[in-house]
Amino acid sequence: MIKIVLEVEGMHCGMCETHVNDVVRRVEGVKKVKSSHAKGRTEVVAEDSVNTELIKEAIAKQGYGVGRIETQPYEKHGLFSHKR
């Protein structure tokens, strides 16, 4: 799994976040999406094989700009994720 952080320009409210989240969720391989208009970014958790260009295109088709894209390994943090 990987975590992708995209700078998204043009999100002004919670409804904008919802629009971005909805289109990104439809991209094959995407597992989780969280957007913040205040921070101007969208965080995506996806399978390693996901095509980041498809995510970028999906957002751009909705009228939002996509700037920098960062990809990093995803580390699950939770109650049962720590090692003993």
Features:
HMA_dom; Alpha-Beta Plaits; single chain; alpha+beta; 2 helices; Cation transporter; 4 strands; metal ion binding; 84 residues
Explained architecture:
The chain is an alpha+beta fold. The protein has a single domain, classed as Alpha-Beta Plaits (2-Layer Sandwich). The protein has two helices and four strands; from the N terminus they run βαββαβ. It has a four-stranded antiparallel sheet. The radius of gyration is 13 Å and the shape is globular.
Can you lay out the helices and strands and say which pair or pack?
Elements (H helix, E strand, L loop, with lengths): L1 E8 L4 H12 L4 E7 L4 E6 L5 H10 L3 E9 L11
Antiparallel strand pairs: 1-3, 1-4, 2-3
GO molecular function: metal ion binding
Organism: Candidatus Borkfalkia excrementigallinarum
Pfam families: HMA
Sheet with most strands: 4 strands, antiparallel
Number of domains: 1
Per DSSP E runs of 2 or more residues, the count of β-strands stands at: 4
Rg for CA atoms: 13 Å
Strand order of the largest sheet: 2-3-1-4
Percent of residues in helices comes to 25-40%
Please write the string of helix (H) and strand (E) elements: EHEEHE
* Ends apart, CA distance between termini: 22 Å
CATH fold-level label? Alpha-Beta Plaits
Which regions are unreliable across 5 or more consecutive residues at pLDDT < 50? none
Task: Indicate the overall shape.
Answer: globular
Task: Name the CATH architecture.
Answer: 2-Layer Sandwich
Q: CATH top level?
A: Alpha Beta
User: Please, how many helices?
Assistant: 2
Secondary-structure-derived class? alpha+beta
Beta-strand fraction estimate: 35-45%
